[in-house]
Give the backbone structure.
Amino acid sequence: MRLWRNYTNIIRSNCASPANQTHDLAYWRNDLFASIIIYLLPFCLIALVPALYFTVFVLQLYAVAIIDLVTISGVALTAFLPGIPIKFRKIILITCNYIFACMLMYYVGINGGAFIFIQSAGIFFILIFPPRFAYWPVFVDLIIGALFAIFLYLDLLPWPKDPQHSLGAWITVMSSLIFLTLLKSALIPRLFNGLQQTLDQQKQLQLRLQGKQLSLQQTMGKLEQKNNEMEQFAYVASHDLQEPLRMITSFLANLESRYTTVLDDRGKQYIQFAVDGAQRMRQLILDLLEFSRVGLQEENKTEVNLNELVTGIELLFHKQLEEKNGVLVRGELPVLYHYKTPITQLLQNLVSNALKYSKEGRPPRIEVKAGEDGESWQFSVTDNGIGIKPEYFDRIFIIFQRLHNKSEYSGTGIGLAVCKKLIETLRGKIWVSSEVGKGSTFYFTIPKS
Ligand code: ADP
């Protein structure tokens, strides 16, 4: 076994392309060449023993014995001699094959073994050389056929006694041989050309895909940079805006308290409007600040017991639930290994909305569910509140987009935008299904890993 492995390793290192080379057709042609030698050589050596015995001791055909030895040595040299380019090794192998076939043709006639050998020499030739040389075996067969015919016709050689070397038989068999070789030369390269086309197409596709991936990566990089800049901008702007706003509010308060005797009712009302506006602006700035901070905190994964987490949320909203006669229901929830803060924030925001957008005269019923969905965890928060029209399903996730004014329901339109951003940082999805007047279900998924 080890001997065989060493033997094949030596031949492969001499006759095949290095393993790290691109596996194109030239690579496989050389691989095939190495395999032909690997299997041909032991066969030749085994066949040499009876061949030598018969040719030397029985038939006394010493020339045949010498040609046998020379051609087999040629194949062995091809296999083991280091430092010869693969191209020349192929030429040596094919030449040895043709010499052996000619010797057989001379001694035993064109039929039988000689015919098989010259055929296989042609096949090896077409397989191991590039398609542009595919028709060479036809010319080689033609030359060999013509030379033998001339030798026969002019009786130039001392023909062996036994085999029939009639010119008619020779021309008949030789013309069939040339036709078959022509067929091989035309058909085998079709297979290689087809394979080459497939390989080229694959390579082109791969290149195109690589190009697309590269441009996608570049776009992603730019987007990420823009996103970071935006976040930075929102953070700095909202942070810096707070100070002047505080000044406006405090001077408005001073104006109201110190000049209360000077101001008439309309003046006081105007100041009140200005204070209201400043307060709203302050809230918006705080929301913007919160939004820009989403996903910035580094956190490690921990065990998240969703039963405890939802119980905590229930406690948090205990007062509002009691006021509205509402209930928060949940089945048995799983324990996950994940980021606790964003999951808590998401569920809190959704439960808070479910309570806020409950329907007048109907006690809120909020149900929290969680379960596995393939590679993700899927959560849902269902309510029996006012519901949302389908045309607003996307809009509600945009920052500061609200479907109601402040007098109907308090808020600034930040809650769902924060949820969406949290989900994006977790690489999950969030969506809603709802029916006006009946209620809504908010779903979100987060990948397990
Ligand atoms: P806010 O509650 O401050 O307005 P959100 O981003 O949380 O901001 O919600 C955006 C809009 O989506 C809300 O104005 C509301 O119209 C709608 N919405 C959110 N949750 C629900 C819900 N559970 N039922 C009905 N409408 C909702």
The two ends are 46 Å apart (CA to CA). The chain has a mean pLDDT of 89.
